[in-house]
Design a protein that fits this description.
mainly alpha; Serine Threonine Protein Phosphatase 5, Tetratricopeptide repeat
């Protein structure tokens, strides 16, 4: 996992720049090296550069179709870039190829999020509950469920999940409000389609679950 994704870096920008430099060297020597293309995709995804990351993941998978983390990364980029149906297919491929993977909650969660964005709330809840069971200590699994439960009018469970998401973040942090969630550049990097769907489903659900606007 890239340290820029993990949240443990004290100098995220510098770490990502250094990673990009090292990957450039590796690809200059071995342009078909699948893992280097995968890591390049990870760096670009950490920078919210979804469209640029997509071909890197695709080149990694062309060389090694069993790179399941590249499947997940490509699926997430497709999601944020607006190709939601492709995102589900890619996560399903990862699950089939590594059904006991330690990161499988992320794949379940991605499928659940796509269903949520497409207003298939019951399907979203099924997948998001699987993600929460697989990794109950990850706050986003609870945050996504809070929105899904609220949209299904189960407001008590929505409030419980929102509270747990905030607790797991060590306080409210950027789970404090809708405005806080939108801060930091991620929101602006979504495709217009993904941003619109996020507004009318995920964020609408969080408002209903009790998250204030500011």
């Amino acid at each position: 996992m890239l340290i820029g994704f993990s949240g443990f870096s004290d100098s995220r920008a510098a770490d990502l720049a250094r990673a990009d430099e090292l990957i450039g060297r590796a690809l200059a020597t071995s342009p078909g090296y699948a893992l280097a293309h995968h890591v390049k995709g990870q760096v670009l995804r950490a920078l919210n550069r979804w469209e640029e990351a997509i071909p890197e993941y695709e080149m990694a998978l062309a060389s090694n179709p069993n790179l399941v983390y590249a499947l997940h990364g490509l699926g997430m980029c497709k999601l944020f870039a607006g190709s939601l149906d492709e995102a589900i297919t890619l996560q399903e491929q990862a699950i089939r190829r590594s059904p006991r993977d330690p990161q499988i909650d992320a794949w379940y969660g991605a499928i659940g999020l796509v269903h949520l964005l497409q207003s298939r709330t019951n399907e979203a809840i099924l997948w998001l509950e699987k993600a929460r069971r697989a990794a109950p200590a990850k706050p986003f699994n609870h945050l996504h469920l809070a929105a899904a439960y609220a949209l299904s009018d189960d407001l008590n469970r929505a409030a419980v999940e929102l509270a747990e998401a905030r607790r797991l973040r060590g306080g409210e942090g950027f789970f404090r409000s809708i405005l806080s969630l939108k801060a930091g550049g991620l929101w602006e990097s979504f495709s217009p389609n993904s941003r619109a769907l996020t507004e009318t489903t995920f964020l609408a659900g969080l408002r209903k679950a009790g998250m204030p606007e500011e």
